Amino acid sequence: MSDVGRQSLGDKAASAMKPESEKSYVEQASDAVKGAMDSVASAVQPQESKSTSQKIGDAVSGDNTNRNLA
Hints:
By secondary structure, the protein is mainly α. The chain is 56% helix and 0% strand. It is built from three helices and no strands. The protein has helices spanning 9-17, 25-44, 52-61. It is elongated, with a radius of gyration of 13 Å. 14% of the residues are buried.
């Protein structure tokens, strides 16, 4: 349950790989909403309850201020 409300690293990568010019307006809006929800979930979820993949993803993307991977 530690990753509730979080995007997987695969989903983030897939979204980032497709150029914005090739996305429909619905895809762009969906990406924006999912990104915002993921950022909020990252900020409120305690670091010690995050999975390793989410800790790494947050550190790489800068989605939270606590980038401690431990």
